[in-house]
Amino acid sequence: MPYSVMFRVWLLLFLVASSLGRVAAVEPLTFDIKLDTVYQQWDGDFCWFHPRAGAIPGAGKDGAPAVVMTTQKWFVKVSDYFSTLSDLRTDDLGATWEGPTERPVLGWRDIGGGITEGICDFTPGWHAPTGKLLAFGHTVRYENERLMAEPRARSTSYSVYDLQTREWTPWQTVEMPDPEKFFSAGSGCGQWITETDGTLLVPFYFKKRSKDARQPATTTVMRCRFDGEKVAYVEHGNEMTTEVPRGFGEPSITFMGGRYYMTIRNDVKGHVAVSDDGLHYESPRPWCFDDGEELGSYNTQQHWATHSEGLFLVYTRRGANNDHIIRNRAPLFIAQVDPERLCVLRATERVAVPERGAMLGNFGVATINADETWITVGEGMHGDAAARGANGSVFAARIRWSKPNALAFPEGGRRIP
Question: Who contacts 94 (Cβ-Cβ below 8 Å, separation ≥6)?
């Protein structure tokens, strides 16, 4: 081949490669956020709290997912005093909602001695191998309409949603191998994963039976089997704790790029840990920005928004002109995470749900389809929240991705939160 022809061929290939490189470079993963009000109610007595959504692929209108959101009333004049669970449902991606509908099978039970036991902090998710929507939370015990004094037993609770009847099964609890060690053990507010073999990875935190109410909680992950009706414990991973007051609690996990990630609540600072197998995690480290400054998220939960091309954290923090909010629990932020350095990229931080005087720290994040991930939260109407502008709204902040999320409902793959 003559040199001039070879040169032209080489030049053409170079230009094509350069063009492809430029196209790739100008198409990073981006998103916009659409804030919807799902429901609103405030009567001075209770607000709707802990709303968390789960999507059922193809069960809505015109092939859209059906989205079921569990929530419950928080009677704000009493600490952690929650009602029977209710749910809301949309079949048209939030254009219309049904509910909230109270579900008595997700309510309190009299266990004797003046003690009642209920459930709270539920997180629904889709289990593709059985075609079931499954929700995990934990139990809570009351005595004379107040939290039962320590030592107070707690269990990981769960329920299954029936797609045909739109009803939930009566809540059950996961039987643990050592009742004394796992005397108080629950998966409250935690994002969990369906593995490729159909087993579940469920993060939880626990305390042994003790009269010392100050003992710190320990966090770990259990592998479970689910046959469509019953959840059975198989094993659990390494146990992580800290002597900082109350220890490690309310863990959430996700999977991206071949590794598992955990975010953990702590009274002083949130922590992050990474794992290769989903059960055994490296030592947790405090959440920081990429410039080394601590994130400032403390004494409340953080959750994951996971895309096949980017890992994101949703959180609250101090330093946002929000000292008037209890524990700085508003606004809700979202920012991208560096999965290698395990830090939050400060320049990517955005407000996902604005602060209107109410706490927003008890929230959920769920993958809805390949195009959207939703952050769901209810305004915690404590103190002077109403005077500052809050009105008991339940929000869905819809993250709308610029590229399809390959981790959303993959065939035979892991189901991320």
Answer: 36, 38, 67, 396, 398
* Tokens of residue 127, six digits: 């289990």
Task: Give every CB contact of residue 95 below 8 A, 6+ residues apart in sequence.
Answer: none
List the structure tokens of 264.
């953990």
pLDDT digits (tens, 9 = 90+) for 218-233: 999 999 999 999 999 9
How far is 234 from 232, CA to CA, in rounded Å?
Answer: 6
Mean pLDDT within 396-415: 91
Q: Please tell me the pTM assigned to this model.
A: 0.93
Mean confidence (pLDDT) of the chain:
93
Token digits of residue 151: 């030592």
Which pLDDT score, from 0 to 100, does residue 16 have? 42
Q: Strand pairing partners for 39?
A: 394
Nearest CA to 75 out of 118, 111, 114 is that of 118
Residue 397: which of 308, 305, 306 has the closest Cα? 305
The whole-angstrom separation of Cα 319 and Cα 323 is 8
Q: Which of 187, 193, 221, 223 is nearest to 126 (CA)?
A: 193
Q: Contact, 192 vs 125, CB < 8 A?
A: yes
> What six digits make up the tokens of 66?
């059906």
**Distance from C-alpha of 220 to C-alpha of 242, rounded to nearest angstrom:** 13
Strand blocks (E) in 244-284: 249-256, 259-265, 271-275
Read off φ and ψ for residue 321, nearest 5 degrees.
55, 40
Two tokens, residue 41: 């109610």
Q: What tokens does 61 get?
A: 């209108």
Distance of CA 59 to the CA centre of its chain: 22
Distance of CA 190 to the CA centre of its chain: 5
- Residues 147, 166: contact at Cβ < 8 Å? no
In the numeric block, which tokens belong to residue 174?
């996961």
Query: Which structural domains are found in the chain, ordered by start?
Result: 31-401 (2.120.10.10)
**Is the N-terminal amide bond of 28 cis, ω within 30° of 0?**
no
Burial 59-68 (b: 16+ CB within 10 A, else e): bbeeebbbbb
What gap in Å lies between CA 302 and CA 11, rounded to an integer? 51
